[in-house]
Structures
1.
Amino acid sequence: MLETRNLTIKFGGHVAVDHVSCSFKPGTLTAIVGPNGAGKTTYFNLISGQLRATEGQVLLDGRDLSRLPAPLRTRAGLGRAFQLTQLFPNLSVLENVRLAVQARAGRGLRMLSVWLHHRDLLDEAMAIVERVHLGDKAAAPAASLPHGDQRKLEVAMLMALKPLVYLFDEPTAGMSVDEVPVILDLIRALKAEGQHTILLVEHKMDVVRELADRIIVLHNGQLVADGEPAAVIASPVVQQAYLGLAVEQDVQVAA
Ligand SMILES: Nc1ncnc2c1ncn2[C@@H]1O[C@H](COP(=O)(O)OP(=O)(O)OP(=O)(O)O)[C@@H](O)[C@H]1O
Ligand SMILES: [Mg+2]
């Protein structure tokens, strides 16, 4: 179980995440919604360790991870999609995923005393590359991929780590319409596996409605709603604070 207790960060005088207390059970997908600047990405950064909290804690299965740097939180099971800057741009798609598989296998090595051969690592990496529909680009340098494929690679790297907690921050942002279903299918499949804790920041309310077991709403860094999707979407706070804004944005996009 992932839990944040009074999680808070201040940038100067601005409280970007404001005493957020929330827990997330394995086997559930929670959507995090809220207007631009609400603190959603910052909340993820606090959980994954890219940012250190001003106040409050992040706990995974009761263990306080708040003082750990990001790599050790990854090792503990908090999976944040890699940013492109964390990939090896000149290595192939397959090699990048293999390195992530290897990082995880190395972690298991001490516990299981199982030696994974190079071939096994490559086979596992290739299976993941195919799962994200990048099989035909396995040999391409990561840097050469178009945007949508880069996002698929990010998801592949995350899956290779087999985290306990998956943090997806707008995984379909900037993707073309025909690429979006690939990512959504992957998230749906991860959810169907039943044991992962999945947090998804997503602006598309139809996606949220379909995938989420629960929605939490952040507004000005505060947790302002939390519950079953239909009830949260219908609540006045969401209608005003979030959907009103989303409608305006859609109009702008259409215009
Ligand atoms: N490193 C930083 N230094 C200063 N201010 C920051 C920093 N990171 C985020 N902020 C501020 O914190 C607030 C929350 O930003 P955040 O990116 O978490 O919003 P968000 O909910 O993810 O928005 P969006 O939907 O646009 O992605 C914003 O006001 C932002 O300007
Ligand atoms: Mg964001």
2.
Amino acid sequence: MTSEDSRPNFHGLDVDEVIDDLRLMLISRAIDDREIALQKQSRVFFQIAGAGHEALGVGLARHLRAGYDWFFPYYRDLALVLGLGVTPLAVLQQAVGCADDPSSGGRQMPSHWGDKARNIVTQSSPTGSQCLPAVGCAEAGRYIVRRPNLPGCTAYGDELTYVSLGEGACSEGEVWESFNTAATLHLPVLFCVADNGFAISVPSSDQAPAPISELVRGFRGLHIFKVDGTDYVAVRRKAKTVVDYVRAGTGPALLHAIVTRPYSHSAADTQAKYRSADELASESARDPIARLSAALIAAGVLTDERLDALRAEARQVVADATAAAIAGPRPDPKTVLDHVVALPDVGDEGDPGETGEPVAFGEAIKRALHEQMALDQRIRVFGEDVADARDAVLANVEGKGGVFGTTHGLQREFGQERCYNTPLAEANIIGRAVGQGVRGLRPAPEIQFFDYIWPAMQQLRSEAATTRWRSNGAFSCPMVVRVPIGGYLTGGSIWHSQCGESIFGHIPGLIVAFPSRAADAVGLLRTAFAANDPVLFCEHKHLLRQPYTVDPFPAEGYRIPFGRGAIRRAGDDLTIVSWGATVEKSLQAASRLAELDGIEIEVIDLRTISPWDHELVARSVASTHRLLVVHEDMITAGFGGEVAAWVGEHCFTDLDAPVRRVGALDTFVAYEPTLEQAILPQVDDIATAALDLATF
Ligand SMILES: Cc1ncc(C[n+]2csc(CCOP(=O)(O)OP(=O)(O)O)c2C)c(N)n1
Ligand SMILES: [Mg+2]
């Protein structure tokens, strides 16, 4: 009961600390109980409890450092975030959807933590998707700490990144991708798997053939620990060992903690439907609060009366927080579009100049990458095959630099820390970029082919694009995702030739650039690196070496604001709006119609499709009175549908003919050249549609 220095202790732990932690555990449980009651009164609209996970949370928090370490907790981590200093008021403000909710301003469900000052990164809902960003965050910390002068970036040599998830979420593939990279790069990541035996109603025996601590044994370098997460003393001891281990920088660790789930999965669930009364009763015997209270009473450190007083005090704290949260202002519906995206202010487009060396599209992008990386050490380029070669052989070989050669020479010039290969895993690439972007770096991940972007969709859409909005502007996620796209390759086929930008145009928070010539690619890439939000930068493969894309390399400072199109050819009779590879085809069709039919077509290149230049299109349609939208993507739900609908709605009185579209047939791109030609829009198709429309 007393140690050598005669301070009261409990199993070697400071009694005051233990009582404080018990107090937090009681507050955590009281918040759950209160939220459940509030939901029945329609004061909160969802509830998911931290009950059963309290000892794990407070025990870990004792050894972690808010505002120093980085945190990617999940929804059951209520006790952990309280231990890190998040107040009951902040928790209740989110639960009731108060405007003052510091995590999200009423935008996110309860228990979706986010606290900028404490480095608790805004949380999303997809299970397990926090793991790859956590790895990227740890990776960023290691990079930043060696470069102390990077603007807006701080890191500590002994920081760690905490990420937690349930045992059910461990079935997600991205989680395994995160173990892979954390172990390969020896990153200071603490994975905490809170195993309560169920994922909603699915028992862990339906998830995997063995518990997670056994499954991960093959990851060399991942240290594995197990703990009874309902035993506060055991958690405290293990947490210290695990945290010390990860903090020392030796590598990642996985803590597999067995916990309980005394309450149903969420307020929308009734666990009595799938768990027997006996089972629930035996689990309640392992309740972490009951266990710690009983142990403290047995040790003579606590009395029943004191426990009752602590419990009453916890309820009061929560009642006061609830009253304050309910009395707080409701969010203003006028703010719903705030913090979707913050377009960079790069001023006017200016003049690209005529004196630069003439370069084609691909070469221009390559040079712009060299230029931007030289200017900004926060930029790191990574992806599949983007590096040149292993350092050991680099002096004797030419270097790969991407399957299209666009990143050639970046590793040689800037080193492996700034241009490196990743595992062949697209979610890994974008997820790690998310974590790096949140830390203030300017990651420039490459997806090798647009056709393989889908495994990264979760990270792009649910993480990168939502970060700013879901945190009500507290966090942002800059990244420049370069992606070779498109067909007209003769032989590319279905998985090397698709477009599909409309799907990304449908994602708020994601900027989509789609340049068609060299100067634009440079001007837009410079702007993309100035942005504080994710940019999908589409590089059309067919354009990389085409002579018609050649421009003098634009003067320093030439940047194109997002959402500003360009008139490629002036005309009075008809407007064509296009982007990417079909801009040139539209120009050819326009020349043909001018020569043969005397029809003058105005061709607009949108250059970015999200945002897109409504004003320029409206102005052109006001003078030509006819619109044809041409794109390479399929017609159905292609982005042309959006342009056509907007013009129909806003420029109706200017129109003398229906808006028409030309695009790919509603199928995939085929391998055999005549099939590809039949599927993708050709100059003839554009010319025919334009002639029809001009003579309507
Ligand atoms: C990708 C995804 N699929 C499904 C869901 C719905 N869902 C939310 S929590 C959950 C179960 C998670 O179980 P586990 O990982 O064991 O964590 P626990 O809730 O038990 O702590 C499911 C299926 C989700 N949020 N995300
Ligand atoms: Mg579970």
3.
Amino acid sequence: MATNGTSSTNGDPNKVFLIWGGEGWVAGHLKELLQQQNEKVFTTTVRMENREAVIAELDRVKPTHVLNCAGCTGRPNVDWCEDNKEQVIRSNVIGTLNLTDCCFLKNVHCTVFATGCIYAYDSKHPPGGEGYLEADPANFGGSYYSATKSKVEELMTTYSNCLILRLRMPVSDDLHPRSFVTKISKYDRVVNIPNSNTILHDLLPCAILLASAGDTGVYNFTNPGAISHNEVLALFKKHVRPDFEWKNFSEAEQSKILKAGRSNCELNSDKLAKRMQDFGVQVKDVHTAYDECFQRMKANGVK
Ligand SMILES: NC(=O)c1ccc[n+]([C@@H]2O[C@H](COP(=O)([O-])OP(=O)(O)OC[C@H]3O[C@@H](n4cnc5c(N)ncnc54)[C@H](OP(=O)(O)O)[C@@H]3O)[C@@H](O)[C@H]2O)c1
């Protein structure tokens, strides 16, 4: 059975959410949030590239809103994509476009959980600068994953039913293996570069607000500002694991142990912050958001 769902009479009776990639990490968080908000929510694991199955699923569930959290990200990490390019295209190019197109034909709003890892700092966008705007052309293709994601994003902006949310280095309130904090806390050595990050606790409710309001177009979906790896780990040490120690190495040293390049950049999240004001929501800056995230982690007994 590809789909399972829960429903409630307390949410908006006119909305039906269908989460694609239903077994994934971000999908699980979204489902929980929508259930807490008493919305009608279903999940599916139907493959995005299978057009007949996608259409059948849309006809069966009849969602008003698809939340597309499906995607091929590579295991154990994005380097996997370098050796499995056809599979990456099948999911992240053919699949993502197919699902968006099927939603368009069925008049369903489609929110895509995309990536901001399509930029790299340059002379016009240095660390500490204004950050990349939504309309800036992608300039990072150092990994096959990022190269395909930026091409697909460009095509998806054509669709009038499509909301594109660019996440970066997402972080949950636990130490889930997919969370950025978990990853860097386990590395032997880490680089130390400021980046935009997405604290899921703060931003997933914003995704539901934007989708529900029928917003379309691209949003840099990160907490305002940028934070370095060392700043993140220092806050982790302060709140969660007092005896935590880590070692740094340079980007040049890092590149020797990676197959693909990694994006480092700051996204300008003014558009998101401004739009959220319409809903009475203030998006917390990334340092405050991390501080509060680690305090929640500690309160929940994470060590
Ligand atoms: N986590 C990050 O660091 C990060 C950062 C920025 C953006 N994102 C984006 O956010 C989205 C969700 O990420 P996540 O961390 O939740 O990933 P995840 O835990 O790997 O979940 C992705 C899910 O999508 C499914 N999937 C893959 N290809 C599919 C296809 N062709 N059709 C249907 N389902 C498919 C996977 O199922 P199978 O395992 O069965 O293939 C998996 O359950 C992804 O698109 C990712 O690119 C993630």
